[in-house]
Structures are given as C-alpha cells and as structure tokens.
Amino acid sequence: MLLLVSALPACRITPALSSLPDDLPAATEEWRVTGHDVRYAGAPVTFGPYSTATVSGSGLSSRWALTGEHLGFGRESSRFGFQLERERTPVLGAGCGSSLDFIRLQAGNAHVDIGNPRDAPALECSIWPAGGNPASAPAGELLLWQKGWDIVGTLRGPFGQVDIVSTRRLEGVPMPMGVPVTYRFTREGRLVAHVDVLDAGAMHLVPGLTESDRDWLAVAATALLMKVD
To answer: Among 28, 94, 117, 156, which one is least packed by beta carbons within 10 Å?
Structure first.
C-alpha cells in the first residue's frame, strides 16, 4: 500500500518551465533525468538511484501506409522494452508498445494523414519482476490512452491502482501546450509522483513510499520518459 503524507509546498531544485502541482509535499525527492532529451536506440535513462540497464528499441514511432491513387490507410507504431535497476540491482522489466491507425488522403505528390477519431491507446506496457519470464503473465501493467489533447490512464501492480493524467501547462504561459509536458500520478486522489518530460526531464516522488512502491512508480516514469510523441 502506498503511504502518504500531508501536502505542503515543495521546493524546486530544477530550472524546468513546467508547472509544479500545488499539492506536491515538502521533502519530495526531485531527480534530474539523463538520457531523455536526446533519444536514440539503446539510450539509457537515469534518475536518482534508477537506471535502465538493457534497452530494446527507442520509443520513436515508425509508420507504414498503403496508398492508392487518392486514398490509403496505414499504422503508426512504437515498440520498446527495458530493464530497470535500482543502484545497479535489477528490480523490474517492461515491454511497451503503442499503435494508431490513420487514413491517408492523396492528391498528386501531396498527402494528409487523418488519425483514428476514436480515443486510441497512447502507451501499453506489461511489467514483470526482474528476471521474470516475458512469456508468463505480467505482474502489472501501464495503460495510457488519448483523451482529446491529453493523456490519461492507470498503473496497476501489487499495490493496487495509480491513476495518471497529463498536464500541458508551462509557468507564465496562459495557453496550454499541444503535447503533454508533465504527468501526475495519484492514488485515491492523493499525489504520489510527478514526472516532467519537458527538455531533460525530472522525476518527483513524495515522501513515505515503500521501496516497492517507488520501484513501480519509477518503471512507469521511465516508460513515459522513453516514449517519444
């Protein structure tokens, strides 16, 4: 079970422009991220005591299309996996993917792609304990989907369920961004983690969490940091 403390103002130690939530508690741990702002196949992601030891894929999207003279269809997809370590000890592994069908309208050399108008999965990850068999049933899952301009979803594991919602606000900017810049993790309405995916990125964990809780939140944060929209 996730242990929570009363929300007090938190101090910011990174110079990111994304807005911090008002209910981020005092003594929240904040870690800078390395390996997020420049993605390439096999690039490790590191923050605090956590790092990816083994990475397959890059989180970048690949796409294909079958197009006739005026009309076609296609699919954009992304697949990647990683093993997460805490202080060089493997703790969890994840296999992630996303896909989006689109329609391509062709006129001469010009074309336009129209995405599936339905809410579509933005990211799906199966999560196993370190050394677990990916062919076996996962111990938990991360499932995110598009909801208009935003992304919402859940992290499920031994502790129960954590709800995730993206935010698109920057400090001092009245209009929201067109893509998520942070993700808010809550359990029963209480903030437990906050992930900044703007520029280099940052990870925030509230105090009072068990070691297992921190590992699961960290593996979900890593998947979000590796995903490239």
So the answer is: 117
